[in-house]
């Protein structure tokens, strides 16, 4: 595989553009791939925002004079080509081949859910060869972006059937989120994943966890799970942004190396969102 240096995602690009798809082809389904065999299109149930660049190859294909591996393209397009001070840099390995199918079941079961406990999420990372430090570092991508109310409103009113908010949620923060996400309101309103610096890539995500201001349950559990190995890593990243950036870059490489399709396996798509000939 050839290498190309890139750097951190731009704050306005969805995080789903990262190359998670080696995990049982789940990423293809997560990105609403169109495939042979009548595989259900995930975007019917979870439509992406209107600015999500699903047809990534449209602009680059004529320039490249041929197909460009979609997995790498998804990563390269999801980067900010200006201002490396915004985040870490790493080498993106090019040449990964794209899968011939999309696995919606894999998307539903292999990719961690925001409602899952830390032990389940840790197990899913471990299955694909990622360790606890990878888990914490990659979770730090929630240093910017937005989440819909339906992904965390269970924490605001009746967490675990208690008729009370999640006790690990900062009281003032919970009140502010209730204004955005009123009970029985729209599940599609948006809240910042990082309430302090919502549009910048930094280590404030980890400081937020220390202050019980993790938006998603899966985020806050990194710090609030008593005795968890993740707590020490969260504290380290909160106090040392350079350590976070270095770990994030390495973990992105580690994630990109999960069972890549090479050689004659898979194909190089000419349209990233569907297999060739479909």
UniProtKB/TrEMBL annotation:
Domain Plant heme peroxidase family profile positions: 75-276
GO molecular function: heme binding; lactoperoxidase activity; metal ion binding
Enzyme nomenclature, EC number: 1.11.1.7
Enzyme superclass (EC): oxidoreductase
Residues given in the record as substrate binding sites: 112
Assigned keywords, A-Z: Calcium, Disulfide bond, Heme, Iron, Metal-binding, Oxidoreductase, Peroxidase
GO annotation, biological process: response to oxidative stress
Binding site for Ca(2+): 143, 194, 197, 202
Catalytic activity as recorded in UniProt: 2 a phenolic donor + H2O2 = 2 a phenolic radical donor + 2 H2O
Named cofactor requirement(s): heme b; Ca(2+)
Disulphides: 149-181
Keyword Metal-binding: yes
Binding site for heme b: 142
Note describing how the cofactor binds: Binds 1 heme b (iron(II)-protoporphyrin IX) group per subunit.
Pfam families: peroxidase
Family annotation (SUPFAM superfamilies): Heme-dependent peroxidases (SSF48113)
Family, similarity comment: Belongs to the peroxidase family. Ascorbate peroxidase subfamily.
Function, in words: Removal of H(2)O(2), oxidation of toxic reductants, biosynthesis and degradation of lignin, suberization, auxin catabolism, response to environmental stresses such as wounding, pathogen attack and oxidative stress. These functions might be dependent on each isozyme/isoform in each plant tissue.
Protein name per its UniProtKB record: peroxidase
Organism: Acer negundo (Box elder)
């Amino acid at each position: 595989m050839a290498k190309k240096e890139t750097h951190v995602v731009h704050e306005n690009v969805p995080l789903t553009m990262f190359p998670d798809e080696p995990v049982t082809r789940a990423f293809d389904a997560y990105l609403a791939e169109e495939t042979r065999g009548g595989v259900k299109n995930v975007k019917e149930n979870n439509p992406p925002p209107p600015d999500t660049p699903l047809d990534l190859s449209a602009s680059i294909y004529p320039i490249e004079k041929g197909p460009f591996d979609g997995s790498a393209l998804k990563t390269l397009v999801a980067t900010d080509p200006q201002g490396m001070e915004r985040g870490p840099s790493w080498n993106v390995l090019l040449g990964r081949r794209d899968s011939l199918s999309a696995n919606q079941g894999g998307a539903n079961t292999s990719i961690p859910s925001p409602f899952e406990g830390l032990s389940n999420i840790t197990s899913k990372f471990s299955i694909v060869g990622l360790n606890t430090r990878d888990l914490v570092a990659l979770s730090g991508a929630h240093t910017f972006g937005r989440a819909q109310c339906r992904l965390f409103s269970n924490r605001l009113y009746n967490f675990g059937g208690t008729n009370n908010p999640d006790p690990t949620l900062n009281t003032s923060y919970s009140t502010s989120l209730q204004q955005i996400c009123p009970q029985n309101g729209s599940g599609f309103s948006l809240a910042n994943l990082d309430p302090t610096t919502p549009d910048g890539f930094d280590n404030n995500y980890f400081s937020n966890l220390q202050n019980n201001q993790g938006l998603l349950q899966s985020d806050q559990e990194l710090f609030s799970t008593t005795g968890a190995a993740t707590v020490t890593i969260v504290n380290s990243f909160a106090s040392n942004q350079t350590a976070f950036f270095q770990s994030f870059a390495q973990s992105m490489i580690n994630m990109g190396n999960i069972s890549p399709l090479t050689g004659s396996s898979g194909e190089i798509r000419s349209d990233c969102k569907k297999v060739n000939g479909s």
